[in-house]
Design a protein that fits this description.
alpha/beta, 23 strands, binds flavin-adenine dinucleotide, FAD/NAD(P)-binding domain
Length: 396
């Protein structure tokens, strides 16, 4: 947003500040590859400073509170910053403490997450020496960031253990609170089929109540028990606690936001970008990128006192790594579920939707470069519009 707005706003009238508590920015999709020794930590972490456009001020501090009634942000070091317009982009983070026993004695011994840098690195070290047994790949509850990432983890695990010639020593089970592999019917069908093909069991409708550390099993509210030797879980995802302290969040600390304008439902001069909002779009980097194009337009309209455009359609575009050098690609929005077809050129591709291919895998690997060099810089991706394109998709 800073990159976009820097070009659009009069420098004599506007000052852009970014406040972030961290000095480093993480390429979170890389957390998926770190446990399998595909990426190194240096592929994933870079200094935020590298990405701040000239003329924009970076303040490294934790935000304690947003006093929205007075247009003030309060920082941990005691400083205050007044704003005319606030864009909240504080993301989502894991909250393993929400499930009894999850952060118990086995945490980072046989219970791991891969949604944090630390968790992903600890899991890499574990997998390097693990001799096999029952592996559970588990989702606690929806919504989560990149809802396909746990599936990708299961597929990559299958491929990883095959390459280590120990697949027969590992039983992989995918445990989900959903009734199938994914949230949308057509993609669920394709992904359920892939799980079967790769000999990955699925336990659906599992609403976890507890991790029993002593007996190494997870238990759901109905009393169903699943034993494990290694539990790779995606804990509950929540917005930052700052929202609770500021009276701006819902029960999961996400900010109630208009799903098409990206304006806060409570304060007209607050806008929300990316995972921090409660809109029903996927929590994905691609979504934040598309939102930013539309939000820039809306902020300029807001400044002029004109009505905002209700233009954001929930467009998401995600590669799903399926192991063995292949991947799927899905492209969807609020009203259209992922279907088969070609992307970005209708009838031509070169990428195919909802079908495994090596080209899609190359796309997934290229996504790291695109993230650092295109998405973070707010550059438009050629031939990919901010709203979803219907042409090239087989909706029938
Ligand atoms: C394992 C995994 C795989 C993924 N794979 C994909 C993928 O393949 N494709 C895809 O598009 N997306 C993927 N994602 C999702 C993607 O990473 C996120 O959707 C994206 O990073 C969201 O961007 P954001 O700006 O909303 O939040 P973030 O990138 O999380 O940034 C939030 C920022 O806010 C700062 N912050 C938070 N609270 C405070 C505070 N109180 N004070 C000061 N600063 C604060 C943080 O330090 C951070 O820098 C994946 C995510 C994970 C975890």
């Amino acid at each position: 947003m800073a990159n976009h707005l820097q070009h659009e706003l009069d420098k004599n009238e506007w000052e852009i500040n970014i406040i972030d508590e961290r000095e480093e920015h993480h390429y979170q999709p890389g957390y998926l590859f770190l446990p399998f020794d595909i990426y190194e930590p240096e592929d994933i972490v870079k200094s935020i400073k590298e990405f701040i456009p000239k003329g924009v001020r970076l303040l490294t501090d934790k935000i304690e509170k947003i006093d929205a009634a007075n247009n003030v942000v309060q920082m941990k070091n005691g400083d205050h910053l007044h704003y005319e317009i606030l864009i909240i982009a504080t993301g989502a983070k894991i909250a393993p403490e929400e499930v009894e026993g999850m952060k118990g004695a086995e945490w980072q011994k046989s219970v791991f997450d891969f949604y944090t840098f630390e968790g992903s690195l600890a899991l890499r070290n574990k997998l390097r020496e693990w001799e096999g047994g029952r592996l559970l790949v588990h989702i606690t509850e929806m919504p989560i960031k990149c809802p396909v990432a746990p599936l990708e983890f299961a597929f990559l695990a299958d491929s990883f253990f095959k390459h280590k010639h120990m697949r027969d020593k590992v039983e992989i089970t995918y445990v989900t609170p959903l009734s199938g592999a994914f949230t949308k019917p057509k993609a669920t069908e394709a992904l359920d089929h892939l799980l079967q093909e790769k000999n990955i069991n699925i336990e659906s409708d599992f609403a976890i109540a507890e991790v029993d550390n002593e007996n190494k099993k997870i238990i759901d509210y109905g009393g169903r028990e699943i034993p494990f030797d290694l539990l790779v879980t995606v804990p509950t995802n929540k917005g930052d606690e700052l929202m609770e302290r500021s009276g701006l969040g819902d029960e999961l600390n996400y900010v109630p936001t208009h799903k098409a304008t990206l304006q806060s439902l409570k304060y007209k001069n607050i806008f929300v970008l990316g995972d921090a909002s409660n809109i029903p779009a996927s929590k994905a980097g691609s979504v934040a990128h598309f939102e930013a194009e539309i939000l820039t337009e809306n902020i300029l309209l807001f400044i002029k006192g004109e009505p905002l455009k209700e233009e954001f359609d929930g467009h998401a575009n995600c590669f799903i790594e399926t192991g063995n050098g292949k991947a799927l690609l899905i492209d969807f929005n609020y009203t259209h579920e992922p279907v088969e077809g070609t992307f970005p050129f209708p009838g031509i591709g070169p990428m195919r939707l909802l079908k495994e291919s090596r080209m899609n895998h190359m796309g997934k690997l290229a996504f790291k470069w695109i993230y650092w060099n295109v998405l973070l810089k707010g550059t438009h991706i050629p031939f990919v519009s901010a709203t979803m394109q219907e042409a090239g998709k087989n909706f029938a």
